[in-house]
Fold this protein.
Amino acid sequence: MANKNHQNKNVNLNGWMNKFKRIEEKTKKLALLSRLGQILNSTLDHKDVRRRAMEAATQLMEAEAGSLLLFDEEKNQLYFEVALGDQEEAIRKIPLNIGEGIAGWVAQKGEPLIVNTPEKDTRFFKGVDDRTEFKTRNIICVPVKVKEKTIGVLEAINKKKGEEFNEEDLSLLTSLADQVAIALDNARLYQELEEMFFQTAESLADAIEKRDPYTGGHTQRVTKYSLTTARYLKKKPVEMKWLKISAVLHDIGKIGIDDQILRKPDRLDPEEYNAIKQHADMGAEIIDHIKQLKNIIPGVKYHHEQLDGTGYPEGLKGEKIPIIAKIVAVADTYDAMTTDRPYRRGLSKELAIKELRRCSGTQFDQEVFEAFAKAYEKGEI
Amino acid sequence: MANKNHQNKNVNLNGWMNKFKRIEEKTKKLALLSRLGQILNSTLDHKDVRRRAMEAATQLMEAEAGSLLLFDEEKNQLYFEVALGDQEEAIRKIPLNIGEGIAGWVAQKGEPLIVNTPEKDTRFFKGVDDRTEFKTRNIICVPVKVKEKTIGVLEAINKKKGEEFNEEDLSLLTSLADQVAIALDNARLYQELEEMFFQTAESLADAIEKRDPYTGGHTQRVTKYSLTTARYLKKKPVEMKWLKISAVLHDIGKIGIDDQILRKPDRLDPEEYNAIKQHADMGAEIIDHIKQLKNIIPGVKYHHEQLDGTGYPEGLKGEKIPIIAKIVAVADTYDAMTTDRPYRRGLSKELAIKELRRCSGTQFDQEVFEAFAKAYEKGEI
């Protein structure tokens, strides 16, 4: 009797220990889920969120690979990026028709799915394996939903140590998908707002430009040339951002110039030229009221300064001229030279580059010109 | 011997069961932490994040109250909002000098703190209890850090069931604070971008307005009047947002009007008046290129339409005129009437309201006018 009791206790103890191990494992996974949620939400860059979501799915599921597929409503397709776990380098874009494959099924039904024997599952789409040269052994796949609407699918492929995916995994991956949905939605909102800002600035610059019938598309070209030059100067993303806004708004001060002067088909007399020169200061004054745009003022105010101090509005010399202004200056002058005016034809690209080279070191910054010339040689300008 | 073994097993079993209960508790808390993180990140509204952070701290710590204090660098103060758990209504703003109180200490040192006997702790600041009529029994307080920089402090006050805060609580609250930091930072970035957008739109509207020397401050006033009217019409936040942008940009089309006409000190002749009328369509054309601003086109394009169909550009009648345009129309006309022109003095407020009333039902929407008049009577216009 005592012996039997003893055995029961042993059984109980083993039961408790197993239960304990499982729950301890779950605790670790929940702590990991919490950390992954933090990492996901630490960026408002949509591409970063997507990459982190795939990495998180791979890590949380202890899988060989993770992938995130997003729904493209226009094309009625899922497009996805595959992160092959440790072999991170192989991230590829492959479109998938809705309903096609495991992911297509999950996207269509809005329900999660575990497939531990893909070769026996008619929903499995071998095409992806063929193209990625990846052998899918088993797969776990959950919908990514924003306010009840499926916007995509999160997957993990091939559980490590030869195991199969289970219900516990499904619950964890579903929680992760909820966090992915939130992070993606925040990034989307931020990106849309940023686009709204840029498009508004560009549209207003366009409208101002239209008052001057001889400069159609000038702002857009100056912006493109400036950004291309900056890439060759290896500028950081944040510098590129300020440069872009600065280039878009560089002539914003023309809002305050009389349209008789702006539209004059002949060469300007000295007084009219002096009036035109005001646009640099006027632009800076407009921007000065916008707290968050402090960083673009140098580009707007000083894009007509020259290295030797003969420019305007302040006659700044050499290193006193901010780099952002030096970049816009080259782009602006190149565009002015290569476009037609009522009183002269535009120069050819070759002649314009030649002229910029002649004036670099006196009017233009040498290094900026070299970057511009390199971009030109590569056919990017 | 057998008996002793048996006892050992019992002891072990109890030990395992306790350990199991603790870890089971922790698992629940981690799952809760994960959910709270989702809730925190599901908004980009700074105020919402703050409120959710306090509620999350209260819930996670099983406390009577939670509070979030944020650092104001200019004033070198912490300001905080107290959420008194179930007695939610009592959210108050109280400033706290840096270094002052438990929270001030945590903010200054950047280290977490548990105080289970506040009455014996010299750092404890009774002033807050006095002002909130709240009795602090114990307190747990952790720094909120963005990229190693302390931006605030998250607290929970009075553990329920008469318990004290422990190290496990500290670890959980620290994780929550990390999530709060991320959510606050995202909301701040979004808010800054939104401000940049509004300020840029306002500055450009101002600059365009400056070409017309008789309308200083017009845009700002029309925006203010429109929003005030909309509040009395009980418009939703999202409608208010579109109305605001629409009011700011309602005259954007004037960018394309000759400055001789804009600046003419005398009354316009019919041909000039026809040219001025173009600004409604021109404004809509500019905005038409901005995908995210589709919703403001009605306000920009139709703010000169009249109920009886005698307005421009399309001569729309009654219900065909969008509500956003009807609101801007009343605000715009009131401001035009009450400001001086070179050829006439502006009307008094009373006379202008009288004139609007006379024309409501034919020129202006009755309901919109009533809302405007109510705001005027309350001294808000």
